[in-house]
Amino acid sequence: MKRQFLGLLARVYVLQFALEVPATVAMLADMLLEYGFQVDIGTIRPLLRTLQMEGYMESVLRDGIGRVYLLTERGREELKTSRQRIDELYRRLHAGAPDTDEAPHEA
Q1: Where in the chain are the domains?
Q2: Structural class in CATH, domain 2-93
């Protein structure tokens, strides 16, 4: 479960990074490393391939840089939806509920 969650979180980060700047695989891997993800280029490529197949990203060759990854309009919408879900989860987690280790009671 933790691995799945981290994979989804990495996906959102990659979409965000690609929105901010056209990035190479190495740049994306470095950005994820900065945020504590244990990744390398070999783990980023399959994610990018999936995001491209889903229509969220595209890649283009840039002179002097190589292949860079950009967000598509569909990717922008996916990122917007993901941000809204993350914001909602954050609000629920910080809604002022008492700090307790007890499970919620069912009515």
Answers
A1: 2-93
A2: mainly alpha
**Model's pTM, two decimal places?**
0.77
Q: With contact defined as beta carbons under 8 Å apart, do 32 and 44 qualify? A: yes
CA 33, CA 51: separation in Å to the nearest integer? 19
What ranges in the chain are assigned the alpha helix state H? 2-20, 25-34, 41-53, 73-93
pLDDT in tens for each of the 107 residues of the chain? 556 656 778 889 999 999 998 899 999 999 989 988 888 888 889 999 999 999 999 999 998 889 999 999 999 999 999 889 888 888 888 887 665 555 555 55
Inter-helix orientation angle 25-34/41-53, to 10°: 110
Q: Do 51 and 14 contact (CB within 8 A), yes or no?
A: yes
